[in-house]
Amino acid sequence: MAIVVGLLSTAEGQAALAAAKREAHERSVPLTVVVTGDEDGSGKRAVEEDLVAAGLPFTVVGGTGDLAEDLVRTAHDAGAELIVVGLRRRSPVGKLILGSGAQRILLEAPCPVLAVKP
Length: 118
Prior knowledge:
Layout: E1 3-7, H1 11-27, E2 31-35, H2 42-54, E3 58-62, H3 67-78, E4 82-86, H4 100-108, E5 113-116
Parallel strand pairs: 1-2, 1-4, 2-3, 4-5
Helix pairs in contact: 3-4
């Protein structure tokens, strides 16, 4: 069992990471962080330092570039009990249609999904 979250430098990504850390701590399970689009590795290093300092057991896995696919696959492979995603605020028209990545995660996830916003 694990909590799965994607590593994104956006406000939504940071909110998801913070929520995932809280969930992992409260549930006493490891955190699995999916890293996509971090060519220089600085994001990965920063999150590893943060998780070590927090005392959380964790795994960092590389992604293919399709975050929705990567999160669902990783959750399946890890036997995850939760996926945490960040959602951005949308316009009134945009609220009619959930973002395609978030929609794919919700529909294909092998476990519950926690959606947070900054």
